[in-house]
Design goal:
The protein has a 4-stranded antiparallel beta sheet, with no helix packed on it. It folds into 2 domains: 3-60 and 103-270 and 315-434, Outer membrane efflux proteins (OEP); 62-101 and 271-308, Outer membrane efflux proteins (OEP). It contains 10 helices and 4 strands, in the order αααββααααββααα. The protein is α+β, with helices and mostly antiparallel strands. α2 (24-34) crosses α4, α4 (103-171) runs antiparallel to α9 (387-421) and α6 (234-244) packs antiparallel against α8. It is elongated.
Length: 455
Amino acid sequence: MNILRLTPLALAAALALPSQAQSLVELYESARSNDAAYQSARAQAQANDARGAQALGGMLPSVNLSASAYTGKVVTSEPSGTPDRNFDTQNATLSATQPLYRGANYASYQQGNRQSEIAQAQLETAEQELIVRVTQAYFDVLAAQDAVTFVNAQKAAVAEQLAAAKRNFELGATTVTDSREAQARFDLVTAQQIATDNDLRVKRLALDQVVGKSGLMPLPLATTTLPALDPDDMNHWVQQAMDNHPNLKQARLAVEIAEYETDKAEAGHKPTLDLVGSISLNNNSNGSAMSPQTSRTTTTMVGVVFNMPLFAGFATQNRVRETVALEEKARADLEAAQRGIAQATRTAYFGVQSGKSQVLALEAAETSTQSALDANKLGYKVGVRINIDVLNSQSQLYQTKRDLAKARYDVLVGGLRLRQASGSLKTDDLQAINAMLAPAQPADSVPAASGTQSQ
């Protein structure tokens, strides 16, 4: 059996993992519960939502209860026939205020509603970022595993070529140059093997970090057929980004908040009107400081309070100027966000298109490099090719295989990045990729490497 005949699908099957291996969706669900960055973003969104709801208090009545109790003593300094006495006083007051007209409070209430919407948009952004981070880390591990597999296969092939060169040299059929070239290539592949092993460890640690668990083993791809881009229209994706991107939602809401901030500043020139009411109970045991008679009174008041600001040292006018300038800044930030997101969406779209073209080109290159290797091996046997030709062909083939495998992963991740750039990325988008993964195998079964051919 020639390991060079292994197809990418067979190599994926050779990497199939036992039943404890995890799918992409499983790891994403774990990351939602364990990823520190996402948990921080979710807590921040909850805090922002609560902060926004605080502004409702300015529209609702405020109620206060106060109470006091004290004791006193009246001492007569001159003889008057009035004896010294002690007295106790208790007082309780319940008061309420309902704003009838407060322009600043209404603007704050509207700002609070926008803050709650911003909190949801921020959480949506964090969730989309988590989807991409988990998927990128997932396929980084698979790419690193592929690199280890290919470099091990290359090392085995070079070892065979080295053994053949040594035998031919001993028989006098070739010079010592062939043996030394094969030995040099074997040493180089050994160094590459060490590097790929270390890279795989690093990539696994990165996946463990984002998921929040250790010892993860992602399932490999079971198919090399990449999903079509739907729709295959750049303008559609850009328009979708303009309509749905959470960062644009935040920028638009920021403009509205800035406008309401101007309304609040202008309210400094406007009157306020409140409905107020109170009820007070006063009990004087043994009289009071002014009267020796015990008394108990209840006082109820209802009315309105009008306040008209007249002059605040030009503070209000300057505050209005400040908020108007901040409005312009918010609008400029929105324009910059629209341009940046449109550009990012176009870049992501072209990245997916380029990636697919690269996959097709590498698939053709894989076939041609395999044919070139077969031809060089045959030429080496009949004496028209030298050992270095075979070694170079082997190296080119395995490099092509590694590039092809990574290009496929990049297209899948690029599709998610395009959806993220357009603001349409959802958890359900992982299901299409998850369906492409190999099913988990029983722990006691070892999958056969299908697609191999004997030579």
